[in-house]
Write a structure and sequence with these properties.
This protein is mainly alpha-helical. The chain has one domain. A two-stranded antiparallel ribbon has the order 1-2. It starts with a helix and ends in a 5-residue tail after the last helix.
Length: 311
Amino acid sequence: MTRANVILLALIACIAALPLFGGSYALRLGTIACMYGVLALSWNVVGGFAGYPSFATAAFFGLGAYAAGVLMSKGVPLMVSVSVAGVMAFAVATLLGAALLRLRGHYFAIASLSLIEVFRELVNNATDLTGGGMGLNIPVSPSAGIMADAMFYFYVMWGLLLGTALMVVIVAGSKLGFGLACIRQNETAANMIGLNTTLYKSIAFGLSAGFVGAAGGVYAAWVHYIDPSDVFDILYSVKPIVMALIGGLGSPLGVLVGAFVYLGLEEVVWRNYIQIHSGVLGVLIVVLLLFLPHGLMSIRDRLLSWRPKRV
């Protein structure tokens, strides 16, 4: 295991201590940070490792949210519902990936973006099951108190973040990760040497969607009410890409740091510039990307290059 991956897991372990130092606001922020981390790390599997610009994150986040939400409304326990949501998202993404991932570049980006509208329309039309445009109310389980509930959902989302990080570390050091790196460098050459690029890309797309779908399921249970405009919001597709670019595309540690930095910027801007928060946040991100085009991880590389060499 590389030093960067050890630091990644250590950082996630440190996040687990957050409830010891903060109240309900810290727990809410920590839960969102873990969710953003799951989205960003998951996207990095297909977008960073394989180099395919996927905009389907919101589609599978919403699919997982509704899959778990419907199951919980039928009385299925939370953990079972979230697990089913993740498996369902993985299966659907793997099957769709076999077709969509034959496209490349902006063609694939547009095709993956269209999945958001396809799934949203399916949910809107399945009114008997999902509530359609009226949304879906998810039963509230017996509560032990506001703080206990907040801590419970924080640790569930944290556990999902840890699982996502372990998946990313395993993939990066596996034959699958090597194959995805070959695809990113030169897919045509990878095909010529006998690599089954469609299979590798489909598995990566499925893994990416599976953890995103599980995060959607946890989110649905956490907020107790979901509607198509919320969970199929295109921002869930855009934000992970921005987080990866901020931290360093392809670097799991950089992507997670980018997710936390993005959330910090988002919170500061919301608190101080609520009327024009979108514009201010956009300007800050553009400035950051202009001065650090290779992400925050490039700072480490610059420092290492400036280190005086031993004679």
